[in-house]
What does this fold into?
Amino acid sequence: MSLLRRRNRQARSAGDDALGRPMTDTPVIRFDGVGLTYPGPPPVTALRDCRMTVERGEFVAVVGPSGSGKSTFLNLAGLLDRPTTGTYELDGIDVRSLSETERTALRGRRLGFVFQAFHLLPYRTALENVALAQLYSRVSAADRRKAAAEALRRVGLGHRMHALPTTLSGGERQRVAIARALVNRPSLLLCDEPTGSLDTSTAGTVMDLLAELNSAGLTIVVITHDLHVAGRADRILAIRDGRLSADRPSGQAASAPQEPHAHAG
Amino acid sequence: MPTPDSRRGRRARGIEPSGIRRRDLAAEALAGVLQRPARSVLTMLGTVLGIGAFVAVLGLTATAGGQIDKRFDELSATQVTVADVGTGVPDDPTLSFPADADQRIGALNGVVAGGVFWPIDQARPRFAATPDADAPGAGYGDGIRLYAASPGALAAMEPTLRTGRTYDRFAESRRERVAVLGPGAARKLGITRLDGNPAVFVNGSPYTVVGIIADTRRMPELLSSVFIPAATAVQGFGEPVGPRASMIVHTRIGAARLIARQAPVALRPDGPQLFSVTPPPDPRDLREDVGRALDSLFLLLASVSLVIGAVGIANTTLVAVLERTPEIGLRRTLGARPRHIALQFLAESTALGTLGGLIGTSCGVAVVLATAVGNDWTAILEPWVVVPAPLIGSAVGLVAGLYPALRAARIEPADALRR
Ligand SMILES: Nc1ncnc2c1ncn2[C@@H]1O[C@H](COP(=O)(O)OP(=O)(O)OP(=O)(O)O)[C@@H](O)[C@H]1O
Ligand SMILES: [Mg+2]
It folds into this structure.
């Protein structure tokens, strides 16, 4: 009961540190038979019977050929789409039962998104772009700027706060986008091809940043084509034709348990 | 551990919906308008023109109407004309006005001066400055007319005298042979000074010139006439037959319509029907006549401009929605609800409309002021025109933004981000 109350308070205060959350035993993502069929016509089953979990503090890469359903997976995990089958629990909350408004609130507070195209507003400075993250949390403008400045310093852009995105390099732009995703101290950072628009060495620095954030406790899921990038993760999940295959451990060998609860240990 | 179902229920209730502060919404809208200033200005043009025309038309109508009112107040509103229509018997020369008409009308409360006058044309008067009929400047019909005018009638014309005086009631009662010259008559007769006691000879009979008029406020058409007292005229030329006599009354402001009702009875309690009275026109009728024709045409044009303005804003906002679809997707990932997206675009279009309304109002006011200054008028800008004008702009922007805002709100975040 006290656990519940604390969780509710967290939801209201929009962003206690992910590490500070008491329920470290609850997986951040738990997919149980999740599938998505786009209605079409013709209907396309982009993801089928997906069972997996992402534990708190994990760094997971999702790889797969184009059209295999990676973005579909991310949209489902990011509450941008509703699964047509199965159950998805985010931070232990079964999101199937939530209203659209609640899903939106959860999305804004518990999830951070990083995209290949950065999606920075071109006429706003780096600071203003990052401050946008708390616009829908009724945080005062001054506090939003303070949090944004802190996030920008966190990604090493303290000196470029007032630059417009058009004057930033690709790597810097992606770091601004990461700072924006960090402001609300999310439970989960979802990155769709974060290095897709960057050259190899810049991609390396962005992945360094993600690895650093992960080692500080942030749970990260990265979608990528690039096996170098995937190699930075703790775990690699492969998708092919909408099917999530057994995950391969990357780097230090994990016990490689089988689905459905890939990392339930 | 609670059961999954109860847990779900409690958690769902614990999630507070995301929301945006009103100030932040306004700031976002303003940023949206200002980030493409040139486009915003072009978009506002229709609204600027519409609101500007609206303010200018209503302002100019009020200003012009004010001028009409002013002239009206000063002259027409203080003037009543009483015409002698007589008994209707043809060629009945009897003067309906009593001999003491001036005093009777002057006794009415609100009358400044009033008196009887008529032209003496039947006698075909010939004028000369000397008894010698062949003297220069004599001649008949040089545009000089002879008028019988009581002292009250002369006073009601509000003359300014170049020299001398007008004749008084005493001269009238004694039927003195005196005359007052209008400036045109004085020039044609060559009489400019009074020091030699000059006389004007009418058909050979002398009338001593006691004054020369420089100008009159009323009946300036009589400026080239020779005036003699009414009683003197009756004695010399008989009662008027052709054009019958009239009375001109100068009243105080506001009294004219009352005097118009009272005058016939005051003059002839026994026969008020002998007179026909012309009261001043009702100022309201006058203004409305002038106002209505202008107003309806230009307000129609202003409305057309406003519709064009609304279409312009709607179009630009729709283009902005399409252009900024990825931004919409991003905002949805940051916790924006569909209504926040709709509100943002609605606020942007409303800001455009309001800005257009403000600029249009300023332009309209400037046009009214410039016209007023150029014509030496007093600018009249009613608050009920100026104050709501920018609000009309806001309303135009709001209505124009409805459809694009709805479109924006319906965009699915996943679709928006796929771009
Ligand atoms: N809205 C949609 N309606 C119908 N089919 C869709 C829709 N979105 C995606 N798909 C299909 O679902 C499948 C998976 O798409 P998804 O975008 O997840 O692929 P992906 O793995 O992200 O590919 P890429 O690497 O090219 O980004 C594809 O066959 C795609 O055509
Ligand atoms: Mg994709």
Summary: Chain B touches chain A at residues 2, 4, 7-12, 14-21, 23-24, 27-28, 31, 35, 326-327, 329-337, 340, 412-414, 417-419 (CB under 8 Å).
